Amino acid sequence: SIARNSPAARYLSERNLTPRDYNSYGSRRGNDAVMARGTFANIRLVNKLVSKTGPRTLHIPSNEEMDVFDCADRYREDGTPLVLIAGKDYGSGSSRDWAAKGPLLLGIKAVIAESYERIHRSNLVGMGIIPLQFLPGQNAETLNLNGREVYNISIPESGLKPGQKIQVEADGVVFDTIVRFDTEVDITYYRNGGILNYMIRKMFA
To answer: What is the top-level taxon of the source organism (predicted)?
Structure first.
């Protein structure tokens, strides 16, 4: 269900809906405004930028803790693209389509994870989000990454190959990752900003 103190609830309340009519995110899958606000809205979410579980994060420039959507909105207003740092089997679970659509709407441009759920990796590519994977034996902890860093990801303008090593720099920490574009088609989707943009351009080419 949609929590009464959530960004999605505020959005629905502003449109004169009462709490009894909020229903669930599943019932509102066709409403991108609600679903964007519901991205990462899991009470068991563990975000190491904050001390409590749930859909909260830290707006680093202000050091203010807030809902994930509100924080992403601030970064969008500032023109700051976002990187998500994750652990193993990132993206596993239900609602896999919105698990990729939501991050896109929040302004996430790349994910760096230890591993990916198979379908979710493909969905990220379809949304134009770069899936990077830590090298074996490495993760955020071993590299002393805490999520407060500024990340620079060096994607070559040409000659990109499936599974290629991609260098990442995070506040002086330099490490290699594997780009999880597993096929040439994945690279084509990425170069076009996702599968939808690719299909539109193909139709009008």
So the answer is: Eukaryota
